[in-house]
Specification:
Length: about 300
């Protein structure tokens, strides 16, 4: 796939409606793939720039395990465009969901989101190239500000333990939480409201460029041996009541939407995982594979 190609996936069980959506997206100049369900086979090297859901799609509930492609969507913050009827169920599984009021608006929405996602993806790829020497370091410090930088660092670190399928997602969640909730002071309820209105990423970018937040950084310290990797992530925020959230996460009856990212991080394959002090520092440790160690 051409990395500059604007790629769209259309999902609908109804073949006729799916074809109509494919035609609409093609008219916008997007390279379109189609499937009946999200968990169906897709090209392994495909990272789409926008995903369009039709009316006839089954969405798994919040606690169902993620398919490989669903993991990719969440890790890469790929924007989703869907009808209002699917919004809440999709928000239970994914970060960025936009609602289209009608088909007349859908095409322009999808095209705009795809173009913005390509820009973000290219920034992430540039960041990966810039710090790929991470494999040869026993100890290092990184400072990051943006979501794209968080995604790039998470991708590279997860390559040290390729057998841990959820590790990249967990690292992404921790680093993005440090950017959003820590440095940018976007609270859980506010983020939920922004996601429901489809303005989450625009608000993140607005704060990143504001005088109040633009100089804040997340500090990532990395220590590596042949057997394991220790990470320490520290943001400049005020922290949070991490003890309550960790306790709530153990009780299915009181699990809240605000703790979902932390629950994912807990299940990501870390051998040790702990917050420190007021909650603006998190340390995690995991064993690295022979493949990862060979790069060290």
């Amino acid at each position: 796939m051409n990395k500059n190609q604007h790629t769209c996936i259309v999902i609908d069980k109804n073949e006729q409606l799916r074809k109509e959506l494919v035609e609409l997206m093609s008219e916008q100049g997007l390279d379109v793939f189609e499937c009946k369900q999200l968990d169906m086979f897709l090209p392994s090297d495909l990272e789409p720039d926008v995903i369009v859901f039709g009316q006839n799609v089954d969405v798994a509930d919040a606690d169902t395990s993620f398919s490989d492609f669903e993991l990719l969507i969440r890790e890469c913050q790929i924007p989703i465009v869907a009808s209002l009827v699917l919004r809440d169920s999709l928000l239970n599984r994914f970060q960025e969901v936009h609602v289209y009021p009608d088909l007349d608006v859908l095409g322009i929405m999808a095209r705009t989101l795809a173009f913005n996602q390509v820009k973000r993806r290219l920034i992430k790829e540039d960041m990966c190239r810039a710090v790929q020497g991470i494999f040869h370091l026993d100890e290092a410090d990184f400072y990051l500000k943006t979501v794209e930088e968080a995604q790039a660092i998470a991708l590279l670190i997860s390559l040290l333990a390729p057998a841990k399928k959820l590790l990249r997602l967990g690292l992404t969640e921790l680093l993005i939480n440090a950017v959003e909730h820590g440095n940018l002071e976007i609270g859980a309820q506010e983020k939920q409201r922004l996601r429901e209105s489809g303005t989450w990423m625009s608000e993140v970018n607005r704060r990143l460029n504001s005088d109040r937040y633009r100089d804040k950084k997340v500090h990532l310290h990395l220590s590596k041996t042949k057997q394991e990797l220790l990470l320490r992530i520290e943001d400049e925020g005020q922290g949070f009541d991490w003890q309550k959230i960790l306790q709530d996460n153990q009780n299915v009856k009181v699990q809240a939407k605000s703790g979902r990212g932390l629950r994912l991080a807990q299940r990501s394959g870390f051998d040790e995982f702990s917050y420190i002090g007021k909650g603006n520092i998190v340390e995690c440790r995991f064993a690295i594979s022979d493949l990862g160690a060979a790069n060290g």
